[in-house]
Amino acid sequence: MNQSSDSPNPLQDSLSQACDSAALLKKLGCPAIRAVYVHIPFCFHKCHYCDFYSIVDSKNRQTAFTGRLIDEIRAISPLVHGPIETIFIGGGTPTLLEPNLWQQLLHALHHALPLADDIEFTVEANPETVTSELMDVLVAGGVNRLSIGAQSFDPRKLKTLERWHDPVNVGEAMRLARAAGIDNINLDLIHSVPDQTLEQWREELDAALGHQPTHLSCYALTYEPNTPLTVKLQAGQVDRVSEETETAMFELTIDHLTAAGFEHYEVSNFFRRHEAHPEVRHEGTKADLRCAHNLLYWLGANWLAFAPSAPGHIDGVRWKNVPHLGNYLNTSGGAPILDVERLDDDARLGEQLMMRLRLIEGVELTWLSPRLNAEREARIAELTERGLLERTPTHLRLTRRGLMLADSVVMELL
Ligand code: SF4
Question: Is 73 helix (H, G, I), strand (E, B) or coil?
Fold first, then answer.
């Protein structure tokens, strides 16, 4: 196991000796957990921009993986206090798992963990993998939100990204999900794809709106190190859109989606209110359709991580599960972990500020003011002077110009 930094802190040293997530939880005193992330590390093939941990795997390791994951859930469960308000099962491509394996996994989650009655339970899906059989299994197992990796409705852009689905798969996946009883559906979209024009991005947004999602996540394409797309960029085989175009696409996203009735609540995330949504029909769909799971991340809540490469956080201690399926399958109990890091109070405040400022409403002054030291006060004053931050009577938040530069502004407050 690696340790992220040399630390004279005996608690940090003791935490770093924990070699799996169960041992770490014991050392942390089995605290209350509000969210759970489960990583399913299988994909059909690797998309060219992706650096998430996933392996292109035939079905022959799915059964072993699911058995090991259930073993991990059962090992962790006596150490967890709830109620757990959200579960997010991401990947990879979770919807690649066979329905019978999903049944086993969902059964284990429900029986082992203290779940809240009104839990938000999200599964990530690739459009081409959604079937009515699988949707029925997910709904029977309590899943009430689907997050679909649409990314683009333009076949040429999907080809550039090396996504293998057809745009028509998105509408069909949504139809099957709704028929099974899932009304709350997010679409992920990517802008600033090579050669994309502003007009093409507007068409993408219109195509997405035509499907009436309750939630949209719109991110600029990032060129992660060592991905095939980055290699192509470095070889001059694709052209990156200009910074001006990327900014214009971001502004268009905000203006176009808010004009269509969506509320902008985080830098890249939008939701449409329940009562204004024609496709929300099933009783029990929660009224607030913001992603509760991601809100808990942004607010710095405690969340647990299951399966290889999943990151977790408890009371300022962060870790990551080892991103290696073989290693995971050869162990039992908690998942092997690495990079355990305890943030000191100042670093934790910087990180919380960075995450909370991503929310459009900003950071509550009643939370922030007692925590600020003179140095951060000065940095906030300077960013306010430059027109990047502003105070409302109750919050500190990014201005519209600050939003365009959100990543660099929040970094200045770390
Ligand atoms: S489907 Fe998702 S996780 Fe899998 S390679 Fe593509 S982007 Fe990455």
Answer: helix
